[in-house]
Specification:
The complex is a heterodimer of chains A (about 160) and B (about 550). With about 160 residues, chain A is α+β, with helices and mostly antiparallel strands. Chain A is built from 7 helices and 4 strands. The two termini of chain A are about 30 Å apart. Chain B is an alpha/beta fold. In chain B, helix 9 crosses helix 11, helix 9 crosses helix 15 and helix 15 runs antiparallel to helix 16. The chains are: A alpha+beta (about 160), B alpha/beta (about 550). Bound molecules: iron/sulfur cluster (SF4) (2 copies) and FE2/S2 (inorganic) cluster.
């Protein structure tokens, strides 16, 4: 069961959209923004409110990579594996990140909920290849070494915040 | 209207909605995996591709016919292309064909043969997902799914349920219930229509052959079967018989040979349903409501009503379905004996119905197992019985007789017609004919008509397909429509197109099944349920004073 606060926030989001099928994607989007992931329990709740089946809501939400059903870390690192980045060696960058953080193809998020590492098909920043994004920031021309430094910097930033 | 050239031949077309239909009309069986004339067009499999004069390929199912069009349907390029498509489908398909339930009847397998796919160059896909056995009616096997979407469109578009849908994307795409939960935990109503359209073994009937077969060889158990109307006009075709031919006699013989001790006719139960339901209706009609009264024979409809329209559940007749009627009476008749009671049904939802608590007496099911028409076909084949050579036998007494009205239960509109027959004055042919031509029969999935009863007008509706029923309920609720009596069947056209019937039934087969039942009706001397002497007699004997206990659901 989700805590009540999740439903309260969702109610607030729902109140801003017409209760119609076409509101589905913007609503899920806002939920993802609010909680950093889409708690699955909320999908039937949203579906009911806008008058669609939970099956439809799940179908749509699971289609988009951007929506995640699992809680994500504070820093979401999206490594581009589009064609341009791939040929310019994005894989070693990805492997470095995973090995430093103890992550894998299956395990995307560190236990301390600090980092999530994912691949994306294309960031649309091919001229900066190989590129990755940390939350909303693009990091161009990455190498494994730069990746290590970047993680260090992010860790420091996080500890300062605390 | 117009003319187009297909492989150099001129072919006229009229109101065909797509090029594919014109091609098929011209006698060319173009392969398809995602096209069903009754469903929306999806255009995913691309097998129906054809070439125009300029060598451009397009999916013929998704293109309107145009006057002057010229297409080719099997150039070397198209043939290569189709073979490649099948090869790709097979590469991501768990190919344990020899032991797959669908083997021999699988469209993918048939097309692979037909198109000459002799190798698959990309390895073998091991089993990756557990099968879903949670439903008593259907089994889901995602490893066999080719993502054609047929089931999704039938479940959502025709049945209005949307229990399953596409999820994820790319190579992870699957057709599953929300959150990949068990199908039994969704709004699925067990209609089996998804299984009817699925071209592969991805959705199949949850079979009960094994326990039945074991009981058949156990001398201590008396195994009793009852056969539903729709089964008799669908089974014969599997053994080379004519479409829609009534083969009830041979079915009885085959069941006796398989070892069933008694074989009864569900039409007996249907007559009981009518006797009880028309009593119920008249009572409500005379009392002035609450209207409408809904029929109760279709378990998928009852389940749908409970899940989506709980406010109407109290409007559903409490009379047992024909299966339960006869099941309950048989239990009573053989009280104290070790029996196993089997329903041979066109329906996967009946497998769910028999488990319902409101249909149990002293915690015991009225019926032990359901075998669908498909399962009976399998058993007959497995036993090596040469069905076409059999001589027909009559069903066993005392529950082997039903009226003509009971036989037409298998068609959408049949229950309503049988019920209203008992309200006709007399049983002259003219009165019955006036009823049968008054709107209760016909092509559409929604029929509305009125019936004159002792100078008063009964407003009635017949609906099949749950999406259509859903729309009707909405109109009833809003007050836009008003009826006294409504028959609902979950499957379009009724039980003849049930989820347990042989598949690949095109338009002509559907029509033939329907006519098969109407013809059996006119060939029966007793046409009204209230003239079935055996059904009437048990009111004074077996069930005397216990109608409510033995013949009604306690929902
Ligand atoms: S059995 Fe009927 S309701 Fe259930 S998934 Fe199949 S089509 Fe949908
Ligand atoms: S389960 Fe069958 S009908 Fe449904 S998408 Fe898969 S192959 Fe097609
Ligand atoms: S039948 Fe036309 S694309 Fe599948």
């Amino acid at each position: 069961m989700l805590e009540q606060s999740f439903y309260d926030k969702t109610d607030e989001i729902l109140s801003r959209y017409p209760a119609q099928e076409r509101s589905l994607i913007p609503i899920i989007h806002e939920i993802q923004e609010a909680f950093n992931y889409v708690p699955v329990e909320l999908l039937p709740y949203v579906a009911k409110h806008i008058g669609i089946t939970e099956t439809k809501a799940f179908s749509v939400a699971s289609f988009y990579e951007r929506f995640s059903f699992e809680p994500k870390g504070k820093y979401i690192i999206r490594v581009c594996d589009g064609t341009a980045c791939h040929v310019r060696n994005s894989l070693p960058v990805l492997e470095r990140l995973r090995s430093e953080l103890g992550l894998s193809e299956k395990k995307h998020t560190t236990d301390d909920m600090l980092f999530t590492v994912e691949t994306v098909s294309c960031l649309g920043a091919c001229s900066l290849a190989p590129a990755l994004m940390v939350n909303d920031h693009v990091h161009p021309a990455m190498t494994p070494e730069k990746a290590t430094e970047m993680l260090k910097a992010l860790r420091e930033e996080a500890s300062v915040h605390e | 209207m117009g003319t187009m050239k297909i492989d150099g031949r001129n072919v006229e077309f009229s109101d065909e909605k797509n090029v594919l239909s014109v091609i098929r009309k011209a006698g060319i069986d173009l392969p398809t995996l995602c096209y069903h004339s009754e469903l929306s067009v999806y255009g995913a499999c691309r097998l129906c591709n054809v070439e125009d004069e300029k060598g451009r390929m397009f999916a013929s199912c998704s293109e309107r016919p145009r006057d002057g069009m010229s297409i080719k349907t099997s150039t070397p390029r198209l043939v290569r292309y189709r073979r490649m498509l099948i090869e790709l489908l097979l590469a991501s398909h768990h190919r344990d064909c020899t032991t797959c339930v669908k083997s021999g009847d699988c469209d993918l397998q048939k097309l692979a043969h037909r198109l000459g796919v002799s190798t698959v160059r990309w390895g073998y896909k091991e089993r990756a997902h557990e099968k879903d056995f949670s439903s008593p009616s259907i089994v889901r096997d995602s490893d066999k799914c080719i993502l054609c979407g047929d089931c999704v469109r039938v479940c959502e578009g025709i049945q209005g349920i949307n229990a399953i849908d596409f999820a994820n994307r790319g190579t992870d795409a699957m057709v599953i219930p929300a959150f990949n939960k068990e199908i039994a935990k969704t709004d699925c109503v067990n209609c089996g229509q998804c299984r009817v359209v699925c071209p592969t073994g991805a959705i199949s009937i949850n079979t009960n052959i094994r326990p039945v077969w074991e009981a058949l060889s156990n001398p201590d158990v008396k195994v009793i079967a009852q056969v539903a109307p729709a089964v008799r006009v669908a089974l014969g075709q599997a053994f080379g018989g004519a479409k829609g031919e009534n083969v009830m006699g041979k079915i009885v013989t085959a069941l006796h040979r398989l070892g069933f001790d008694e074989v009864y006719d569900t039409t007996f139960g249907a007559d009981m349903t009518i006797l009880e339901e028309s009593k119920e209706f008249l009572e409500i009609f005379e009392k002035g409501g609450p209207f409408p009264l809904f029929t109760s024979c279709c378990p998928a409809w009852v389940s749908f009503c409970e899940k989506r329209w709980p406010e109407f559940v109290s409007h559903i007749s409490t009379s047992y379905s024909p299966l339960q009627m006869l099941g309950s009476i048989v239990r009573e008749y053989f009280k104290g004996q070790n029996i196993m009671s089997i329903g041979i049904m066109p329906c996967t939802a009946k497998k769910y119905e028999i488990l319902r608590d409101d249909l149990k007496r002293d915690g015991k099911q009225n019926i032990d197992y359901i075998l669908t028409t498909e399962e009976l076909i399998t058993m007959i084949k497995r036993a090596g019985i040469q069905f076409d050579m059999l001589e027909g036998e009559a069903a066993d007494m005392p529950f082997g007789i039903g009226s003509g009205g009971a036989v037409i239960f298998g068609n959408s509109g049949g229950v309503m017609e049988a019920a209203l027959r008992t309200l006709c004055k007399g049983s002259e042919r003219s009165a019955l004919e006036e009823l049968s031509t008054g709107g209760v029969r016909g092509p559409g999935s929604l029929r509305e008509f009125t019936f004159n009863y002792k100078g008063k007008e009964i407003k009635a509706a017949v609906v099949s397909g749950l999406a259509e029923a859903d729309a009707l309920l909405r109109r009833i609720k809003s007050g836009e429509s008003f009826y006294h009596f409504v028959e609902v069947m979950a499957c379009r056209r009724g039980c003849i197109m049930g989820g347990g019937q042989p598949v690949h039934a095109g338009y002509r087969t559907k029509e033939a099944r329907k006519h098969g039942l109407y013809e059996s009706d006119v060939n029966t001397q007793i046409r009204r349920s209230d003239e079935n002497p055996l059904a009437l007699s048990i009111y004074d004997t077996l069930i005397k004073g216990r109608e409510h206990e033995l013949l009604h659901s306690h929902r």
